[in-house]
Design a protein that fits this description.
Blueprint (H helix, E strand, L loop, with lengths): L3 E5 L17 H12 L8 E5 L5 H4 L5 H11 L23 H20 L5 E4 L20 H11 L4 E5 L6 H6 L6 E8 L23 E6 L5 H19 L3 E5 L17 H14 L3 E4 L6 H15 L13 H6 L18 H17 L10
Parallel strand pairs: 1-2, 1-3, 3-8, 4-5, 4-7, 5-6, 7-8
Helix pairs in contact: 1-9, 4-5, 7-8, 7-11, 8-9
The structure holds zinc ion (ZN).
């Protein structure tokens, strides 16, 4: 039986990016409520760990002191003429009260998850508030002020571990890729909707790393509208062989659920069935597993998908009927179904969409696979 840790604090839900901002910290509380209502925090091999905020010194292992000063000033509501230079202001990365504390918590929880797995205290640790993969050393980007995956993976690398980072968020994991672009100590694999259609506009197959890191950055873009079958085809062609060849000590996954069919920010057509298949494969690859959340802007989807993910991490088949107590909470978010899992989606992909993915797979097999001793066809 796998020993698992779930890192959480109710404090997350007290933060607000703004009334009209799509990222709602409340989704973490909703997820927590659903997981708890299924009794999945009382499993014998599971422990619940209260999030501890990251320290300034921990944040400085990736972010510049200058940028952290700016974040602190913004949190306090101080006037500065240069916020925009750090990605802050109206729009994606608003200035809101508590934003520094929020960032400390998001970073701290993922560091805890990584350390719990590294020390061998648990085999799997899940921090739903983490996965803020767009944060850059000196600026905020894409709703992310602090890049918790980079901080946590950096900690694992300093402890001597080889890490495979797998990012299934619908957006390219650009911040994490950039941080480890020139090293072979971290294999980054991002599957996402193509940068031709979606923020941040990067993540093409041709981005494969540089110097010692050549072949250790991997990108599989999908056209808008990819469904479970097409997504799985790409995922299975690329992820298992590369991770098996790389032989990581620890697998780190960013489990964004914004590739789902009714997410408001992107154009994917995934359902819980495809997500579960992906999770099962990840579990098989990850004997030691650090997992975070990520994007997800349909709050009911977030809660349902991450509850299923937590079930997989604990080897539990979560019953499909939703517990009565949480149905009103999900209904308030527009979900009126009675089940945890989605119904199958009838939205076939076109030959052209298929072709686009086949070409990306072929490119990776030709240019990246040989660097890992894998066949190029
Ligand atoms: Zn995203």
């Amino acid at each position: 039986m796998r020993r698992t840790a779930y890192i959480y604090t109710d404090e997350y839900a007290r933060f607000e990016y703004g009334e009209t901002h799509p990222l709602k910290p409340y989704r973490l509380k909703l997820t927590h409520a659903l997981i708890e209502s299924y009794g999945l925090l009382a499993l014998p091999a599971c422990r619940v760990v209260e999030t501890v905020p990251a320290t300034r010194a921990e944040l400085e292992t990736f972010h510049t002191p200058e940028y952290l000063d700016v974040l602190e000033a913004a949190d306090l509501g101080l006037y500065r003429p240069d916020y925009a230079a750090y990605g802050l202001g109206p729009g994606d990365n608003p200035i809101f009260p508590g934003m520094y504390r929020w960032s400390q918590l998001c970073a701290g929880g993922t560091l805890q998850a990584a350390r719990l797995v590294a020390s061998g205290e648990v085999d799997v640790a899940f921090h739903s508030a983490g996965g803020l993969h767009h944060g850059m050393p000196d600026r905020a980007s894409g709703f992310c002020y602090i890049n918790d995956p980079v901080l946590a993976i950096g900690e694992l690398v300093r402890q001597g571990y080889r890490v495979a980072y797998i990012d299934i968020d619908v957006h390219h994991g650009d911040g994490v890729q950039a941080a480890f672009y020139d090293t072979d100590r971290v294999l980054t694999i991002s599957l996402h909707e193509s940068g031709r259609y979606l923020f941040p506009g990067t993540g093409f197959p041709q981005e494969i790393g540089e110097g010692k890191g050549r072949g250790y950055a991997v990108n599989l873009p999908f056209p808008p509208g990819m469904d479970d079958a097409l997504y799985l085809e790409g995922f299975l062609a690329i992820v298992p062989p590369l991770v098996a060849a790389y032989q990581p000590d620890i697998v780190f996954t960013q489990l964004g659920v914004d590739a789902f069919h009714d997410d408001p920010l992107a154009h994917g057509n995934l359902t819980t069935a495809g997500f579960l298949r992906v999770l099962e494969v990840l579990k098989a690859l990850a004997r030691r597993w650090v997992a975070t959340g990520g994007g997800g802007y349909n709050l009911a989807n977030v809660a349902r998908a991450w509850t299923l993910a937590w079930g997989v991490m604990n080897d539990v088949e979560v019953p499909d009927p939703l517990p009565e107590a949480v149905r009103p909470l999900l209904a308030r978010q527009g979900y009126h179904g009675q089940t945890l899992r989605d119904r199958p989606l009838e939205q076939p992909v076109s030959p052209r969409q298929r072709q686009e993915v086949a070409e990306a797979i072929a490119y990776l097999k030709r240019h990246v696979f040989p660097l890992h001793g894998l066949p190029s066809t």
